[in-house]
Amino acid sequence: MKVEWNDELLTGLGMIDDQHKKLVARIASFTEAVNQQDFKAIEETVNYLIGYSIQHFGAEELIMIRNGYDEFKSHREEHSWFINKVYDLQKSLLQKELSQEQLEEMRDVLVNWTLQHIKIRDKRISEKISS
């Protein structure tokens, strides 16, 4: 599974697109680390994702609030779901409770969620506040 930034992920919100590029790059790093069974890189990437996703989602949510975005609550729930998934992953990593199969499953969940969330939900922010 190859993960990389492409123009389908552009929202038209410069700051958000810049942050998405970094987020996609880290998800790609996580994917590569899982594929190579590099547990040190997995842990480092998950630690980064925890902090960065909270920072990024906060920026997105501020834009939504300032613009009276009507889907704010459901969008924020999706962000919380992602943060909880990454937290659960971090907790399992610390307790050494993950098999390679579980890591691969988590990799697929994070990749699919991130790309779909950006393509559908985040693009909708730009469409709604620009109109």
TrEMBL record:
Gene3D superfamilies: Hemerythrin-like (1.20.120.50). Residues 12-125 form the Hemerythrin-like domain. Signal peptide: none annotated. Keywords: Iron, Metal-binding. The keyword Transit peptide does not apply. Belongs to the hemerythrin family. PANTHER family: BACTERIOHEMERYTHRIN. This is Bacteriohemerythrin.
